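Priority: medium. Attachment 1 of 2:
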């Protein structure tokens, strides 16, 4: 429920207002378009809003094709399948990421190879990637093999984490040199730019998420975007049960039921209309936090590379425990007591039980970021008064 203005003021006066980590912003034509679906009976996995949502995202990213999916995890699964990734292949992923792209690799029977993230922008470390490819792999007959596992490496998934782009040019170059497919995971970074180009518009294929906490939301949803008509066609076919002949129900491949519904797409169309405002709000939120927090000893605010425009999906800071005399988890608990929801970064995936046996290369930074990182309330609709409360709470915690 949306609290009315009087109510909010009241809560602030008593100091009890809950400030969530990241909640949807539903301020546009969502009701109108969803009602239209209900009024016309077009509620399921085909309909004008699905087409219109796909067109609107494709146009925004300057991509030729877009295929809506039930979520980004399924989009990644399909992107890997259409890239020819299968049993006993390997796919390169960053050591610090939400787990979805790593799980998607395993759905195909392939294995992840974990590459560290870099110290400054926390994204996949392209220098370490270069080292790994040139020193630990063998390229023969147009295929790349991991010397340690003897498996064939087929693809790289750069994950643009927390709204900031990965350094894509070196990755695209290495991929060309070694015959690898690149699948961008842009789930957290719709609208972010790399050297003036939108993320999701750079690699062969990209996947997006419209989960509730992302830059825009359809409740749940995802999308595959590409410029390759064959990839798009195959993705559409696999996400709709691989129908060779719908009437006779002929299926020559194993398909999936991964399509987005018209109701969800209707919400997506409305959210896309507001995307620019969402991005402006995210960037305003980030500069307000940074202005207040960057001077603190032991506290690191997010950096934006000079070639990058970040959308600051979750505004995340690092606490140096020795200098702050306090860990990120201590701060989390103190803020929680004051009704402020924060969250640590993701546990590094390479040492979680399902992935312990997988290959990882020189991981040094990812674990430190996991220990030190804390994401602050970052909703599109967060107010400066709410940010002030968060900032005050952090300052008080550090000063005591
Ligand atoms: C949220 C997220 C996903 C998964 O998105 P869903 O739509 O929830 O399946 C994938 N990758 C990253 C990096 C994410 O943050």
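Attachment 2 of 2:
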């Amino acid at each position: 429920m949306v609290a009315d203005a009087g109510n909010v003021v009241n809560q602030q006066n008593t100091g009890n207002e809950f400030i969530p980590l990241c909640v949807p912003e539903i301020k546009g034509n969502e009701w109108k378009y969803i009602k239209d679906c209900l009024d016309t009976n077009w509620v399921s996995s085909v309909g004008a809003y699905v087409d219109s949502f796909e067109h609107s995202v494709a146009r925004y990213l300057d991509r030729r094709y877009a295929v809506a999916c039930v979520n980004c995890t399924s989009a990644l699964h399909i992107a890997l399948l259409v890239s020819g990734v299968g049993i006993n292949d390997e796919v390169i992923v960053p050591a610090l990421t939400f787990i979805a792209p790593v799980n998607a690799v395993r759905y195909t029977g392939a294995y992840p190879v974990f590459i560290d993230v870099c110290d400054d922008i926390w994204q996949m470390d392209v220098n370490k990637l270069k080292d790994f490819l040139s020193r630990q792999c063998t390229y023969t007959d147009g295929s790349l093999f991991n010397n340690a596992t003897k498996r064939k490496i087929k693809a790289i998934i750069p994950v643009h984490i927390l709204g900031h782009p990965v350094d894509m040019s070196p990755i695209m170059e290495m991929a060309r040199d070694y015959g690898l497919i690149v699948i961008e995971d842009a789930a957290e970074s719709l609208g972010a730019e790399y050297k003036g180009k939108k993320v999701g518009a750079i690699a062969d294929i990209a996947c997006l998420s419209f989960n509730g906490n992302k830059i825009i939301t359809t409740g749940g949803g995802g999308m595959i975007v590409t410029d390759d008509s064959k990839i798009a066609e195959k993705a559409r076919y696999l996400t709709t049960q691989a129908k060779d002949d719908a009437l006779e129900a002929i299926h020559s491949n194993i398909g999936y039921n991964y399509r987005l519904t018209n109701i969800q797409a209707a919400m997506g169309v409305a959210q896309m209309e507001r995307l620019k405002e969402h991005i402006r709000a995210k960037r305003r939120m980030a500069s307000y936090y940074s202005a207040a927090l960057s001077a603190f000893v032991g506290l690191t605010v997010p950096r934006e590379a000079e070639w990058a425009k970040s959308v600051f999906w979750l505004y995340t800071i690092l606490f140096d425990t020795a200098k702050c005399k306090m860990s990120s988890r201590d701060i989390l608990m103190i803020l929680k007591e004051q009704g402020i929801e924060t969250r640590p970064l993701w546990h590094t995936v390479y040492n979680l039980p399902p992935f312990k046996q997988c290959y990882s290369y020189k991981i040094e930074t990812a674990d430190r970021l996991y220990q030190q990182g804390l994401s602050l309330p970052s909703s599109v609709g967060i107010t400066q008064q709410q940010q002030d409360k968060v900032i005050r709470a952090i300052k008080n915690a550090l000063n005591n």
